[in-house]
Amino acid sequence: MATRHLSTQPADHHNRVRFLDAALTVLTDRGVGGLTVRGVAEAAGASTITVYTRFGGRTGLLDALYERAFDLLREDLLNLPPETDDGVADLLEIALAYRRFALESPARYAMMFERSVHDYDPDPELRTAVLRTTFAMFVGKIRRISDPGTDSRDYGYLLWTAMHGLVSVELTIRSQTPLSDWFIEPTDEANEIMYRTGVLSMITGLGLHN
């Protein structure tokens, strides 16, 4: 994906990824409060001047980090096994990969979808580009099992919002003290079963089929 922060020089690309991986580590370990130019520079073993030179400041750094997070999601989805003859199973597999990505780093997921950095609003063109790139993958899976004339984008939006809701609630509950009488056991297996059931119910409700 093209980016406003990416040089065409291989060495510059390598250094950019190093800074952004350092920023993701800061986000995971220290939360959004640690996402300062100084904090990222220290994590990358560089000077703050270097970060300003490369990204133009905190907003540029956050834009690049936002894009990097979506690139990582896209890479995860592209690394799924090849499509099979079972389109419903393939759609479920990409939905499960989305959940795994969220659980891997809730802080990263929150930055992408929850506006966790309250004073940061991603550049609209950037937001459009990254969302289209990943969203198109869901739409492509849905189109395979949709009836002719179906608006796969609408169905993709409905399915994604269901996935997002299930994941967001699970992450919220995981971050709190467990409830002794909660109807879902506090295990990853139980949560995955509930998520799988919810996604399959949405797929069935939309009339998607092989």
Mean pLDDT metric: 90
- Gyration radius from CA atoms, angstroms: 19 Å
- Structural class based on helices, strands and sheet pairing: mainly alpha
Number of DSSP strand runs: 0
- Helix/strand order, N-terminal first: HHHHHHHHH
Low-confidence runs (pLDDT<50, min 5 residues)?
1-11
How much β-strand is present in the residues?
Answer: under 5%
Largest sheet geometry = none
Q: Could you explain the architecture of this structure?
A:
The structure is a single chain. With 210 residues, the protein is an all-alpha fold. The protein is 70% helix and 0% strand. The protein has 9 helices and no strands. The chain has helices at 10-30, 37-44, 48-55, 58-78, 87-104, 106-113, 124-144, 152-174, 188-205. It is globular. The two termini are 32 Å apart. Residues 1-11 have low confidence and may be disordered.
Q: Topology of this protein?
A:
Blueprint: H1 10-30, H2 37-44, H3 48-55, H4 58-78, H5 87-104, H6 106-113, H7 124-144, H8 152-174, H9 188-205
Helix pairs in contact: 1-2, 1-4, 2-3, 3-4, 4-7, 5-6, 5-7, 5-8, 5-9, 7-8, 8-9
Descriptive terms for the model:
mainly alpha; disordered N terminus; 210 residues; single chain
